[in-house]
Amino acid sequence: MNTLISLYDRVFARIARAGDRLLPLFARFSFAAVLLVYYWNSGLTKLGDGMFGLFSPSIGAYSQIFPKQLEAAGYDASQLGLFHWAVVMAGTYAEFILPLLIVIGLATRLAALGMIGFVVVQSLTDVFGHGATDIKTLGAWFDRFSDGVILDQRLLWVLMLSILVTKGAGLLSLDAVLRRR
Fold it and tell me: Which regions span the lipid bilayer (predicted)?
């Protein structure tokens, strides 16, 4: 019996060491495969027209981030203040910058932490701003369905990002290159 336990310990110690190096790389790959284009497309919907659209968000940006405030302003974004503009611009830039940092593995822990915050705010906005409270969209934990967009899917996103916060970028990252220097 001791031989089996010893063998078990040796095998899984090797797997744990390999996992410490490979799990973050796989988490970054999964993020790129599942969420990179999702967030970049979402960011593109928030940019205004033309070259100066980087500094002038679209009406869609305000409707996605501040739906109730925009409705109260009669869908006239110019009625919203500097605070609203700054939040919309920060959210828009975050949808481009944070995913890019995660994929290339630069400042990965901070970028993943920022993305966790982003997912939480996104989810709260969906529920309280857009009223996404139907069971199909919201979902429920500990039920027999795994397809709820907000509670089920986004919990898995946060788990994936938590791996990056705790383990870092792993192999093949700019963080690893900079650490070696």
Answer: 21-40, 82-103, 110-129, 155-178
Model pLDDT, residue 84 = 93
Both structure tokens of 36: 């990179």
Range of the domain at 38: 2-180
Helix pair angle (154-167, 108-124), 10° resolution:
160
Report the alpha-carbon angle 31-32-33, nearest 5.
Answer: 95
Q: Are 40 and 99 in contact (CB under 8 A)?
A: yes
With contact defined as beta carbons under 8 Å apart, do 99 and 93 qualify? Answer: no
Model confidence pLDDT, tens digit, residues 39-90:
999 999 999 888 888 888 999 899 999 999 999 999 888 899 999 999 999 9
Q: What is the pLDDT of residue 18?
A: 86
Of 107, 86, 96, whose CA–CA distance to 174 is shortest?
A: 107
- Overall number of domains in the chain: 1
